[in-house]
Amino acid sequence: MANDSDSFADRSNNAFHAHPDDDFNGSTIVTIEARDAQGNVSAQYNLGFMYRNGKGVPQNDITALKWYRLAAEQGNASAQYNLGLMYDNGQGVPQDYKTAVKWYRLAAEQGDADAQYNLGFMYANGLGVPQDDTTALKWITLAAKQRNDDAKINLHVMSDECYGFDKQRHME
Fold first, then answer.
1. How far apart are the first and last CA of the chain?
2. Which has the closest alpha carbon to 72: 116, 42, 30, 31?
3. Average pLDDT over residues 90-117
4. Left if phi > 0, otherwise alpha if psi is -120 to 50, otherwise beta: which for 23?
5. Cα 109 vs. chain centroid, distance in angstroms?
6. Domain ranges (residues) in the chain
7. Is 50 exceeded by the pLDDT of residue 75?
């Protein structure tokens, strides 16, 4: 049993890493939910993850959205990215590209490479925002510089399609 000086976030994160393929038991969920009353952002994010993926609880996108939103509103970039995905894909909510862009942008501005790539994709395809190749290139380049494989591939494709930029210059 963890001692009282261990932070809850450390204990819950260790539980995820120690048993990535195991379901969590009900007492773990009760502990995490009790800690949430204190506004623990890590606990909120972890509950969102657990409900979205059915880890130790029945899979439930609506409940996942609730927990992700609580963490996202406190600035958790991973929660912001996951909210973006859920709105982008219509999971637990009607598909809403404009709202997906909002959450992707908040995570992307914090340096989340996956959010940067998805935001660039949204601009490249005019999903939730006016189509804008320059802004798409900006975000996809930032993600590629962080070694996001999808971004690197799309940056290559964009250069092959004559988007008017030097691929080497954008990767430096």
1. 48
2. 42
3. 97
4. beta
5. 12
6. 8-74, 77-172
7. yes
Residue 164 φ/ψ region, left for φ over 0, alpha for ψ in the -120 to 50 degree band, beta for the rest: left
| Buried b or exposed e, range 52-86, using 16+ CB within 10 angstroms | beebbbeeebebbbebbbbbbeeebbbbbbbbbbb
9, 42 in Cβ contact below 8 A? yes
pTM for the model stands at 0.75
**Residue 160 burial class via C-beta count within 10 angstroms: exposed 0-12, middle 13-18, buried 19 and up:** exposed
13-70 pLDDT tens trace: 444 443 444 555 555 665 666 565 568 898 899 889 989 999 888 999 999 999 999 9
Residue indicated by tokens 């290559």: 156
pLDDT at residue 85 above 80?
Answer: yes
What kind of fold does domain 77-172 have according to CATH?
1.25.40
Longest dimension (CA), the chain: 59
Residue 33: Cβ within 10 Å count: 13
| CB-CB contact of 66 with 44 (8 Å) | no
Give yes or no for a contact between 55 and 24, defined as CB atoms under 8 angstroms apart.
yes
Token pair listed for 36: 């949430």
